[in-house]
Amino acid sequence: MTTPLPHPDRPILAIVGHGMVAHHCVAQLVAGGALARYRIEIYGEESLPAYDRVHLSEYFAGRDAASLRLGDAADYQHDGLALHLGVKVTALDRAGHTLATSGGPRHYDKLILATGSYPFVPPVEGAAATSRLVYRTLDDLDQIRAAAAGARRGVVVGGGLLGLEAANALRQLGLEAHVVEFAPRLMPAQLDAEGSAALRARIEALGVHVHVSRATESIKPGQRYRHRMNFVGGEALETDLVVFSAGIRPRDELPKIGGLAMGARGGVAIDACCRTSDPDIYAIGECAVWEGQTFGLVAPGYQMARVAAAQLCGDDSLRFQGADMSTKLKLLGVDVGSIGDAHGATPGARSYRYVDEAGASYRRVVVSADGKRILGAILVGDNSYYDTLLQYTVNAMAAPAEPASLILPSTSGAPLLGADALPDSAVVCSCHNVDKGAIRAAIDGGCGTLGEVKACTKASTGCGGCAALLKQVFEHEQTRRGVTVDKSLCEHFAHTRQELYAMVRVGAIESFDELLRKHGRGSVGCEICKPVVASILASCWNQPIQDPKRVVLQDTNDMFMANMQKNGTYSVVPRIAGGEITPDKLVALGRIGQKYGLYTKITGGQRIDFFGAQLHELPDIWAELIEAGFETGHAYGKSTRTVKSCVGSTWCRYGVQDSVKMALTLENRYKGLRAPHKLKFAVSGCTRECAEAQSKDIGVIATERGWNLYVCGNGGMRPRHAELFATDLDDAGLIRAIDRLLMFYIRTADKLQRTSVWRESLEGGLEYLKEVVLDDSLGLGAELEAQMQAVVDNYECEWANALSDPEKLKRFRTFVNQRGGDPDIVFVDERGQKRPADMARPAPATTAVQDGKKIIPLIEESVS
């Protein structure tokens, strides 16, 4: 509990609940001057401050509670504002203007209820503990994680949005995931039968098992698993844990106790001012009911928060008049969109449908009886159509003469709705209710960059789904004002990376100096253009990174062909293709690690990483590794890193193809391939997916008839599932598809752009990429394959290349006039190995003293 605040002269505004909507309401109150009118007391039942529930599933993908937090501590450090966490409000006494809390009675003068909702769990006999988990809060997720320890299979009851999010969480925890849905299709509120079928096909291809038209009758102890779920009709399914995600219900205990008017199906009734039947009490978010409707999305909750805050600040102009419930989602890596009247319930409505059963894609656009209005849409598999369809729908814009063109593949000439066609009233960011007019006003007010527009308007700071449209509007408005939208790489090149790639390829340019002379300005370049051009040159010609023409372009890692660590030492990662290694090579690695006193760790990509090597030791370590049969693993470059594999059909009783052999083939083909960003591959020998191929840039999964290819996934800060690209490919077809896709990526991606971001930025989406790569729609197939083959043919181990050249070896000295190491590097022992000491590393000096002699760091020398 925080210390009670002064200002007894001010009435108390109490807020019960501290979720996303309450947090937004507090921000609006502070901005509106409410602290001059009230003392604001906020009561949050959870022990954590407000966090981002929209991205809750990312908690299982590496994000922690701190990174999900909304705002920062400074938001609640205003005089007259107090946040009480871990305090439950149990009763409401309207007559006495009192709240009963776990910390004692609390007075209020005005009250905002923002209690949200709770997950509905149907009354199922035997549901308890690990068979009655829910997916709502961070505490719930911690319980799921604990239950997953030692588990093999998990079931989610509920095939709606949150249910599929929960199924994805179970997959991320390594469980075999099942979804049980009472309705005959997934996401029945958002999707029609065809859309649901497409979604089901896609998520089943990802390994999630779907059971529809199933009603759980009871849960009993299982035989092979912890629990046995018994369904009406006699069927059963065993599992280790059960997560219920069968919908939500308003948290309306307090208004019921207080005798407020309620909705017919629960929730506290509010008017257009978000006021309840008591004029001193407001309600916002999922606990509120407006004209019989509840709103389970964050954007309507934010709208209510703005209305309530305005009312309490003396502004009577805002009204809540309902909200658009359109949703743009990515479920298990699958694009899903639902807009307006998606089911065509409007009398006389007609629909156009685009169905791609082979690719499990589906699009539907609903138009008015006269064909002049777009009423709604459904998208499964490709949300690149979403922004255009949403703007036609919410702004009542005249439909094109051929409405079907809005959902046909973009290569057939589907009209795209440009920023110029949007009226000022068009809402760009629904989370913060930012329309095009507000963005224009921000630019007129001096916002000259996209970041400044975001900071000023809050657009694209909610769910982020409007980022592409916001960028389009910003660039259009800048152009309309006569401001050139600068897409230059840097001050030395007035070109994009894609344009520079074309210049290098067409002009057969082999050096930075030549490119700068012909197509740039200045004489030396900078830290932006040098690495980009180096990557382009390496991607085109695959010449050793240590060549004199290129070494001056590299960052430290590429320059020394090892990753610099926090204490100034380097890590060395030899290639272990496919994770396959002989005992003799393991012994050699152990001997080298012992000899040089290196910290040793097995990486997530099935390789062995040596840490703690000093610069002058690198050539000696490489020499011994090469003698033992290893080569560089390119862990230091924006290039192919690893191809992870399971043992496949050679050992595993479930394997249907030799995944190790294919992993070796792929790694040996693409090793050393330089790209805009690092590349990771994986090959699984069956659909059990032990190699985790669906989280990689290139993922390959064996089938009875060949290989399924997944593309453009990644882990990291922003995880993204790879998407199914082609099925049942033979070996030659698989390699041909990967050759084309990777070279097309290298040719068209922006600097430092991962395959996942590149794929999302492609106009036309996955279908367009399939047409280019699989159908050769641009006629580039043979050219892309030839370019890849040239890269393969020119491969050379960069470590070996450096070892063969005395001039290159001169670089690998810590000091110019001293062959020893850096005396300032200090290690400590931990778990039988050494690690860097926890101490501040001294700033680099131009000289040091060792054995009574001045020594000069080589890294301070000019490298031109």
From TrEMBL:
Domain Nitrite/Sulfite reductase ferredoxin-like: 565-627
Binding site for siroheme: 690
Domain NADH-rubredoxin oxidoreductase C-terminal: residue ranges: 326-389
Domain Nitrite/sulphite reductase 4Fe-4S: 637-773
Organism domain of life: Bacteria
Residues at which [4Fe-4S] cluster binds: 646, 652, 686, 690
Alphabetical UniProt keywords: 2Fe-2S, 4Fe-4S, FAD, Flavoprotein, Heme, Iron, Iron-sulfur, Metal-binding, Nitrate assimilation, Oxidoreductase
InterPro entries linked: BFD-like_2Fe2S-bd_dom (IPR007419), BFD-like_2Fe2S-bd_dom_sf (IPR041854), FAD/NAD-bd_sf (IPR036188), FAD/NAD-binding_dom (IPR023753), FAD/NAD-linked_Rdtase_dimer_sf (IPR016156), NasD-like (IPR052034), NiRdtase/SiRdtase_haem-b_fer (IPR005117), Nit/Sulf_reduc_fer-like_dom_sf (IPR036136)
Domain BFD-like [2Fe-2S]-binding, first and last residues per copy: 427-475
Cofactor: binding comment: Binds 1 siroheme per subunit.
Cofactor: siroheme; FAD; [2Fe-2S] cluster; [4Fe-4S] cluster
CDD domains: NirB_Fer2_BFD-like_1, NirB_Fer2_BFD-like_2
GO molecular function annotations of the record: 2 iron, 2 sulfur cluster binding; 4 iron, 4 sulfur cluster binding; flavin adenine dinucleotide binding; heme binding; metal ion binding; NADP binding; nitrite reductase activity
Pfam families: Fer2_BFD, NIR_SIR, NIR_SIR_ferr, Pyr_redox_2, Rubredoxin_C
Stretches assigned to the FAD/NAD(P)-binding domain: 13-310
Pathway(s) it belongs to: Nitrogen metabolism; nitrate reduction (assimilation)
Gene Ontology terms: biological process: nitrate assimilation
PROSITE patterns: NIR_SIR
Keyword Iron-sulfur recorded: yes
Family under the similarity heading: Belongs to the nitrite and sulfite reductase 4Fe-4S domain family.
Protein's name according to its UniProt entry: Nitrite reductase (NAD(P)H)
Annotated source species: Achromobacter aloeverae
